[in-house]
Amino acid sequence: MEFINKPNFEHSFFNDIVRINYNCEAAPQVINDFGYSYIMIRYGYFEARNNQGEYIAIPRIFTKCTGDFFSVKAATNSSWISIELPNGAFHNITKLITKNQRNKLIDLYDYIPAEILDTLYVALENENEIEKITALVDKSLESYYSNWMVPLDSQPMVDYIFNKKGLLETIELSEKFPFSSRTIERIFHKEVGASPYRFICLVRFNHIIRELLENKYDSIDSLTKDYEYFDQSHFEKDFKKFMGQGVKQYKDDFNPLLTKALSRVYHETN
């Protein structure tokens, strides 16, 4: 598997762009959610299953919101390009109630003319340089960015959660922002794709799993305490919720896709 990205990637809209090329068939690998929206472009054959083990149809160009873990199996000479967007971009692109689209891959052809996407698809097929991929995507889609970047009520709260690494209680959001707890729930349902509590847990989990990957901790107990888990069993519960497996199974399994994804710098909001 060839994992191509650009360190210190910068863009006015995208958080990151990654290309993954499979030179041989890859067994199913679990990938968890990182709390962002995505546009993804598929080349070749993949099989994907959701967190219930059900097959998911994969459009060749699709957008995805925050959801649950899933598994993906790739055929030889397949590849995909993953364009990571701010969390609220999915809602701005589709105008859909985001929580109702969890674990769905929404065909971008429903929102952008086929001639634009067809041209982009052909242009990107054999391009492996991130700078050139970015330029080609901008050329095709830049006219849409202003609408996709429209400020949402959820965005300051999402940024706050990311900046605090998920180390907060949900009540802090209604204390910090001019919304009641009930209104915040509705905003997250519409724009984020997860409840405030689940999103906070997801962000915290993604920070702790990076430290687990880097092996820069004295013990699991000390690591979980640093991230305000009650105990190791509380952490195990989150691990199974967001990864579909226990800590030991994760550490025993070979999962280069997740390892590469986690090794990138977690996007910092401003």
CATH topology assignment of the largest domain: Jelly Rolls
Number of beta-strand segments = 10
What is the element string, with H for helices and E for strands?
EEEEEEEEEHEHHHHHHHHHH
**CATH class of the largest domain, anyone?**
Mainly Beta
Pfam family, one: HTH_18
GO molecular function, one term: DNA-binding transcription factor activity
Keywords: DNA-binding
Domain HTH araC/xylS-type: 172-253
How would you describe the overall organization of this protein?
The protein has 270 residues and is an alpha+beta fold. It has two domains: 2-148, Jelly Rolls (Sandwich), CATH 2.60.120.10; 154-263, Homeodomain-like (Arc Repressor Mutant, subunit A, Orthogonal Bundle). Helices cover 43% and strands 17% of the residues. The protein contains eleven helices and ten strands. It has helices at 89-94, 114-124, 130-148, 154-163, 171-176, 181-191, 196-214, 220-226, 232-243, 247-252, 256-263, and strands at residues 2-5, 16-21, 26-31, 37-43, 46-49, 55-56, 61-64, 70-74, 79-85, 106-107. A six-stranded antiparallel beta sheet has the order 1-2-9-4-7-10, with helices on one face. β5 and β6 (55-56) form a beta hairpin. α2 runs antiparallel to α3 (130-148). The protein is globular. The protein starts with a strand and ends in a 7-residue tail after the last helix. The model has no long low-confidence stretch (mean pLDDT 89).
